Amino acid sequence: MSTPVTLSGFNNIDFGSIVTVLMQQASEPLTALQTRQDAINSQIKAMASLGNRVSSLKTASDNLGDTNTFSAYNVTSGDLTAVTAKTGTGAIAGHYDIQVLELARAQVTATNSTTPDSNTTVVASGGTLTIGGKAVTLTGNVTLTGLADAINTTAGISVRASVVRSATNAYRLVLTSNATGQASAFT
Q1: Are residues 50 and 118 in the same domain?
Q2: Distance, CA of 172 to CA of 170 (rounded, Å)
Q3: Same domain for 113 and 180?
């Protein structure tokens, strides 16, 4: 332990206070430097935080440039039995309303030629007729009504045949698809 310094001959002078004041004055430049150092350290921390935020912003902006970021679209339908859809590479974001202007119809095809009578005029003498990939076998002399019956009794055929009077002494064979839409088309 150190021994305090005392001087004799000086009356009522407080050397301890003088030394304390001198030490405080001598340390003021150091205190100022420490305060400045603390301020600089705070600025360094603020710059590091700013750098992290700029880096995060760069990463986010890089993601905006990635074409896959926005190309993942979803499609929903309120009634999947009525409307279905799927997205593709050229899909454009948006809300689309579908309005049905016309319902799908069954394909109807009529013969170009007519016969004067549907029950007596022979239209075919045996052979095979193919409708929608199904073979209809005809035997003997076949009238227009007989042809319609042969088509209607063929198993798995997707059409219905009928005889229609289009004018006086003019009958035609009319084929109607059993289903609607393009998928049920026949030749």
Answers
A1: no
A2: 7
A3: yes
Q: Give the distance from CA 86 to its chain's centroid.
A: 6
Please report whether residue 88 resides in a domain. Answer: no
How high is the pLDDT of residue 131? 86
Is the pLDDT confidence value at 9 over 80? no
Distance CA 30, CA 52 (A): 33
Tell me phi and psi for residue 86, to 5 degrees. -145, 155
Residue 41 and residue 94: Cα distance in Å, rounded?
Answer: 51
60 lies in the same domain as 116: no
Domain range for residue 157? 108-184
Please indicate, yes or no, whether residues 178 and 116 belong to a single structural domain of this protein.
yes
Q: Which residues pair with 109 in a beta bridge?
A: 175
The pLDDT tens digits of the residues spanning 40-93 come to 999 999 999 999 999 999 888 887 777 666 666 777 888 888 788 887 777 777
103: which residues sit within 8 A by CB, 6+ positions away?
A: 180
Separation between Cα atoms, residue 148 and residue 138, nearest integer Å: 11
